Amino acid sequence: xxxxxxxxRLDAGKIPDLGDVLGxxxxxxxxxxxxxxxxxxxxxxxxAPALLIIYFPILGAAIFDAQGYDPADVxxxxxxxxxxxxTLLFLVVMIFVQAIVMALQAGLYRLFAAAEKGEEVKxxxxxTFLKGRYLGKTFLLSLIAMLxxxxxxxxxxxxxxxxxxxxxxxxxxxxxxxxFSAGQIVRAAFRxxxxxxxxxxxxxxxxxxIAQMVGFLACGVGVLFTSAFVYMTIYNIYKGVVSGxxxxxxxxxxxxxxx
Length: 259
Prior knowledge:
single chain, mainly alpha, 12 helices, transmembrane helix, transmembrane, membrane
């Protein structure tokens, strides 16, 4: 599928029904709950070392505070080059974390498509976009997502809420159209996000609440098994629009998915 064909499908596609999306997401959960758990677990394992780097300065500030020092005075006494270096390191680590998560999300969407088509589902599909040929584009998409979020944050709260929906679709578009340029993926994600914004926003909130509530009812640890439910919702929104209402999703999902 070419970029122009995808845009045509996005423009012509119907806005998915909220009930249909949730129903399809529940059906998909029955087939892929274990793989969703693996996604959550792998995300934590791969991202945890990077997050530790971020928390070291916070831990240091807490230690200084416990010893009676004012962390603000400590920071002011640091050389400017040290502060700049720490800030740059923080940004690099955050981009790295987001890139890893986005790559795993894209692999998860590919896994969902394989499960729905009745193909053999292997956990290795999750690592599809952690391969060298996709890493550069994954990091670029993560950088773009972060810049958009920072710009929206600087403008106020409402823009952040608005851009959060299209950003959710970055990984979905990337998963099924990995050969598109980063700019094309971003524009397609915003086209889809703008078209389905209200439905998508409500579904993201609902699916997140359902996942959290069910997870906590299962002694808290159940969240590990339900957290991926929101991505099953995103997948079904994408499929519902791009497939043109075809229940099987063949037209929109099969074309352009050969990696």
